[in-house]
Amino acid sequence: xxxxxxxxxxVPTVKPGEAKSFYKDILGLQLLSEDNYALxxxxxxxxxxxxxxxxxxxxxxxxxxWNVGDILSVIKSLNEKGIVCERYAFLEQDDLxxxxxxxxxxxxxxxxxxxxxxxxxx
Length: 122
Known about the structure:
By secondary structure, the chain is of the alpha/beta class. It has one domain (about 10-120): 2,3-Dihydroxybiphenyl 1,2-Dioxygenase, domain 1 (Roll), CATH 3.10.180. The chain contains 2 helices and 8 strands; from the N terminus they run E-H-E-E-E-E-H-E-E-E. It is globular.
């Protein structure tokens, strides 16, 4: 029923100005629209709606993630823009914050201005 429809992802923000700068200028997503309720970005075939909310308690788990070809170069680019990867005591991570899963995938996590957890997977 929905398999052939475009997916739209949602992430909340209580900091619209910071979120706009983060997703547009730091992550490089194309801003499609902006109104009093949300920002909408284009993310390679997926629409991302950053919705304005009154209160927010960020979840401790990943809410958005990207598959990348070279996780180390993406992390270094984020680091140059002041974004660092999260550290988790229960995982073995390298100096840049990358965890290698049992299946061999490399994963790292970082946060947006609201504290929403985002991930990279190679």
